[in-house]
Amino acid sequence: MAKPSDKRDEKMEALFQKRVQNPQPHQHQPSTTENQVPEPATPNGQGRKLSKSKDPAWGKFTILLKKETQLDASYYAERLDHDLSDIAEDLLSRWVSEQRQSRQKDSI
Hints:
By secondary structure, this protein is mostly helical. It is about 50% helix and about 0% strand. The protein has three helices and no strands.
């Protein structure tokens, strides 16, 4: 009789083989609200705002920064009463927008 772990291993191997035989590259679908910052979600449309970790419009993402950059950014963000994730979102959104505009100009 096969152990439960053996069955899991067989299922994982089958999924892996299927993926190897039919690779599908990830295709980014730009959001319909490019250049718009999503409104924070609220439960039932009222009350307190959801935290970013609970808000489906936000996703967790880890990046590597030089320690000095991270410490300085955290220091200034706190002094200016800003959230570091809002700053990163703003900067990356602008950069993505610039890249899209550049690609559109190149394709004309």
